Fold:
Amino acid sequence: MNSRRQFIKKTLVGAAAATAVSQAIAVPGSRKGVKPIVISTWDFGVAANKAAWEVLKDNGRSLDAVEQGVKVAEADLSNPTVGKGGYPDRDGHVTLDACIMDELGNCGSVAALEHIAHPISVARLVMEKTPHVMLVGEGALQFAMENGFERENLLIPSSEKAWQEWLKEKKYKPIMNIENKSFNTERLPGNQYNHDTIGMLALDAAGNLSGACTTSGMAFKMRGRVGDSPIIGAGLYIDNEVGGATSTGVGEEVIRTVGSFLVVELMRQGYSPEAACKEAVARIVKKKPDTAREIQVGFLALNKKGEYGSYALQSGFTYAVCDAQKQDLVIKGKHIF
Ligand code: ASP
Structure:
């Protein structure tokens, strides 16, 4: 190709990219706001939202709602991506990541926590009882046990079996949308690895926002790997003046773009929740176009008015919505590719 043609081609590609970004900005406002309301990632958010709703419907605090809500996913042994029953790392250790944030800007987080079935409650205690935001590994476990959490084996037989299968090939390739029942009807064989997270955002009757995010991270990940989910600003961010956001998918790309903070800041600038999520995934595409085609990342956002929206890289991302009208709504997220 001669240099003039190359130049024209590059210019056209550049113009197309600019259009994609300006379209992202132009997406109109999302759904009509209501409160109280709770939203969370993936189909499994429905059951979690119901537990959160029990708190919200009686004028409870959004912080209590999100903790109670995500604990349902953490306790669900059929879910290989969150809490007890989560797939282990490549060495067979189940290591959990979680964080929580309230309407006052308080936040707490644990990462690479082993043997504790409800990392979200440990994260809340880090927030409430320590001068710190984040505890990791052995120190997080010690703190949990000092605070009365039971030490247990989180590697259940089905997850151990999947890990043993995985060890045969040790193939390190993410499966998109593993958590979405319409895509996967049973637990995956162990020669594949997967990831997914529950991120939950709630607005209570008093108009206050909180969020929680909890995961076992990427299945068969490297020992010590921590994703976006326990990182305040990446996997979760709340600003009670504006709104909240959470993410799911390949955490490395979310950390690189400080995704949830970005979504909230875009909402502060006037973007609707959906438009903010769309711009955040567009940034991932812009930074790593080739990687972005291969992976899933989804953002979910709720603003101060109770309006919500989402956007993902790929099709297949779903989220659950629960308010006074409907407790089991599942919405298919819009997507770039
Ligand atoms: N974001 C999580 C992580 O990277 C996993 C996921 O949501 O799929 O650890």
